[in-house]
Amino acid sequence: MKRKTRFLQLALAASLLFSAAANTSSLFAADATSTRDIPVGGSGQMEMVGTIDPTILSVTMPTFVPFNISNGVSTQNKVISPRINVKNNSNVPVRVDVTYTKVDLDKIKNIEWSDNGTVGANQIAIGLKQEETKNQMPANLTQARWLAANKKQDMNVMVLDANQEGAMYVVGTLGQAVSENATFNVTPTFVVSRTSIQ
After folding, report:
1. Cross-strand pairs, 55
2. Could you say which of 36, 107, 188, 192 would form a disulfide bridge with 101 (CB–CB 3.0 to 4.6 Å)?
3. Residue 190 exposed, middle or buried by CB count within 10 Å (0-12, 13-18, 19+)
4. Quick one: pLDDT band at residue 198, thresholds 50, 70, 90?
């Protein structure tokens, strides 16, 4: 089976580095034991104290993932990828989204990108899929989340509870006319944000 090496560089937005600091504020009641009468027609002041309760959002995952893609792979998913371990180090649930994917096909001539997983003879589609069976590459493309090339995208790839670990794989497919001897780069930008588990 002839395989070609492809590179998926999991890049974070520079400001996030897989960690985002989110400040949430909570107002705590101060000791309300002292009281004072305000006469009719009079005025008075009440001091209110607020406290900022910071929550640090932190998710770890690899920043570089090589993978092979070939029409010689017998399953619907034509990609062989390592397991991408994702760990929520926060004490709150988080969602991991892809907001943009830079795709560079300069080293493969006359090849186009497919944003939806359906490919013609000269197209490639790459996506991400959550692990269904532990340590087992997905064989099919059902529920794959497809990376859209070089445009804004708001795609959720994973939701993790507090301190939860998860995993996903690179998946994809390609048309029969795609050369078996070329490489291309795919660089998704991930954003981590606080969420609630549904």
Report:
1. 22
2. 188
3. buried
4. low
DSSP of 37-91: ---TT---------EEEEEEEEEE--S-EEEEE-TT--SS--EE---EEEEE-SS
Give CA torsion, residues 172, 12, 5, 120, to 10 deg: 30
Model pLDDT, residue 144: 97
68 Cβ contact list (under 8 Å, min separation 6)? 3, 4, 5, 6, 79, 80, 81
| Pair of tokens at residue 154 | 């708001």
Token pair of 13 as six digits: 């937005």
In this structure, the number of other CB atoms found within 10 A of the CB of residue 157 comes to 20
- Taking the model in full, what pTM does it have? 0.74
Average pLDDT of the residues of the chain? 82
Q: Which residue has the tokens 């492809």?
A: 6
Q: By the 8 A CB rule, do 86 and 57 touch?
A: no
Q: Can you tell me which residue has the tokens 């998946």?
A: 171
